[in-house]
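Task card 7
Instruction: Convert sequence to structure tokens.
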Amino acid sequence: MKKNYSRNLVVDRLQPMPPGQLVTFADHTGASTQTTCRLFIQNRRNDRAAFNTVAILHSVRNKQTGQQSRPDTAYLKWAGQMGFQKTIFPNDEAELDAFSIRVGQPGVFIHSAADVPRKSIIADVGVYELNEQPTCCLRTCACVICESY
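Output:
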């Protein structure tokens, strides 16, 4: 019998907010106005939920120079909730805040559990890969930084 699921969670897509749409985001480090890109993580199993799913930003790589860094490896925030863990039910998906662009602050930011003031993970204009790891899944996101709001 052929399996119709993956043993790992699967990243389905990266989706930015509509152009010009801004939200106010606040957490334990402060508040900012921003636009956010989200990753959609699917649990393709039809028999089991993925309990206590967590994700980290494993690394950031500048595609032009090849330079790689690990600016923040704390748990990433799931969209629409305050926590950093998520249950993804069978044949369902969850949204993860992949990265954000803030109004009036240059660079790219992430929403993580790090208990320090937010610093940009990318400051220079360029093309980057963000290697994010939700539990047992590796996904590379392409991120093109042209300008800030």
